[in-house]
Write a structure and sequence with these properties.
4-stranded parallel sheet; 5peptide_repeat; Pentapeptide repeat-containing protein; PA_immunity-related; 3 helices; Pectate Lyase C-like; mainly beta
Length: 255
């Protein structure tokens, strides 16, 4: 399907005038401190949003969806290729178990939605903000993220293999056992995140920043060349680093 027609009902008048504004990026900057990594650009808001109507605006192959508000919509279980989604807002939307291939999302806002077990390949997000959403098992493989913020999201067991990160911020997210195998994380920042058991094997991490994160059981520490870790995080990471380097740690007093 393509964009909405003029007969599509408008989003209720009590909807925020600028749904893309907010403190997410600024809060990440305050909590993360200074650094060379670029702050993600905010999504460019549309002049107006029209309410999406199902099934007309359910994702379909080669469909284009612009300036739509998906509110409490059920898009779960769908499959589509070459979808283009621009300046759309998703609030309380169910996208779980959706399968996407070669999809593009630009200038979008996702709030309080369910993206659990969504699987995408060869797809991209540009200027996208995701807030307080459930994303357990979310998979974005062999893709691209540019100017993207994930704030207070549940991203445990998520997969990001072979994906490139350019100005991407994770703030307050649960990323336990996330898989970043061979991802380019040089443009990523993690602030206040739980990365317990996350896998970083063969990832590119020059310039990747970690601030106030839980880093227990990390895999692929030999790939952390060039990463920037806050002092107190490095102390917590000492045992993992020692194990990766084959250094034994003794609790015995040899004095």
């Amino acid at each position: 399907m393509s964009t909405t027609s003029s007969t599509t009902p408008a989003v209720p008048s009590d909807a925020p005038q600028s749904p893309y504004s907010g403190p997410v990026v600024d809060r990440a900057r305050r909590r993360g401190g200074g650094g060379a990594s670029r702050t993600p650009a905010k999504p460019r808001p549309p002049s107006s949003l029209e309410l999406a109507v199902l099934p007309d605006h359910r994702f379909d192959h080669e469909g284009t969806y612009r300036r739509l508000g998906y509110v409490d919509a059920d898009l779960s279980g769908g499959a589509a290729e070459s979808v283009e989604v621009e300046q759309c807002r998703f609030r309380g939307t169910d996208l779980s178990t959706t399968t996407l291939d070669r999809a593009r999302f630009t200038d979008c806002l996702v709030e309080h939605s369910n993206l659990a077990n969504l699987r995408a390949s060869d797809s991209s997000w540009a200027r996208v903000r995701v807030v307080a959403s459930r994303m357990t098992g979310f998979t974005w493989a062999d893709g691209s993220l540019r100017d993207v913020v994930f704030d207070e999201c549940r991203l445990d067991l998520s997969g990001w293999r072979f994906t490139d990160f350019h100005a991407v911020a994770f703030t307050g997210c649960n990323l336990a056992r996330a898989d970043f195998y061979r991802a380019d994380l040089s443009g990523a920042r993690f602030v206040g995140c739980d990365l317990t058991g996350a896998q970083f094997s063969q990832a590119t991490m020059k310039g990747t920043r970690f601030v106030n994160c839980t880093l227990a059981g990390i895999g692929g520490l030999t790939s952390w060349d060039g990463a920037v870790v806050q002092g107190q995080d490095l102390i917590a990471l000492a045992y993992e680093l020692a194990g990766a380097l084959g250094i034994g740690i003794s609790d015995e007093d040899d004095s």
